[in-house]
Amino acid sequence: MTDLTLDLARPAPLSPLDKGGSRSGFADTLLAPIILGWHSQTYHQMVGVETQLPTGAYDANAAVNIGRNYYEMAPFYALTWFPTDRIDISAKFRYGFNTINRATNYQSGDEAAIEFSSGYHITPALTLGINGYIYRQTTDDKQNGVAVNGNGNRGRVDALGPYFKYSFTPKIAMSLKLQQEFDVRNRPQGTRVWAQLGLPF
Q: How many helices (H) and strands (E) does the chain have?
């Protein structure tokens, strides 16, 4: 679910104009058809390419959308390191290339992101730790081929928070993550809560 609070100030005696909204549903589909991995006892790494498909609901006139209505292709490199039996450190480096939103003729700029986490294994099944991400837009947003707002409207955001993970078996695990965003520019700011379940196929 996405919930946006946005009040636009107006001259007195007019009250602020409510441009927020809320919407729920399935978001865009993320596929990673190419993944290569190399593994040792304490260090694991993977490279691949992710493709985001515009399958989420989208309306150009809506204040809030679940989908983005454009494709993205992003190569990535991910690693996990176990410096001790009780500590794990993970990171994922990703660079995304976006296509044009045909409904608005708007093209978002390229995106660089680093996701990270570090956990302490209280028991073999239970892990507590911190997680977060750093996001930077590296090229300008463009509409009709022209940089938006004269400066490209480049976004940035940092996030940090705790996480909890419980492993039912070596291959089945559940995670709950909280991520509080800060140092935000040209993007909405909020708090993310992720509930994830890992299952082998």
A: 0, 17
In the chain, domain spans: 2-198
Kindly write down the DSSP assignment for every residue of 87-156, as one continuous string: EEEEEEEEEEEE-EETTTTEEPPPEEEEEEEEEEESSSSEEEEEEEEEEEE-S--EETTEEGGGTTT--E
What pTM did the predictor assign? 0.82
Contact 120/131 with Cβ under 8 angstroms?
Answer: no
Per-residue pLDDT of the chain (201 residues; tens, 9 = 90+): 566 555 555 566 666 555 556 666 788 999 998 899 999 999 999 999 999 999 988 888 877 788 889 999 999 999 999 999 999 999 999 999 999 999 999 999 999 999 999 999 999 999 999 999 999 999 999 999 999 988 899 999 999 999 999 999 988 999 999 999 999 999 888 899 999 998 877
According to CATH, the topology of domain 2-198 is Porin (2.40.160)
Q: Which residue has the tokens 């005696």?
A: 13
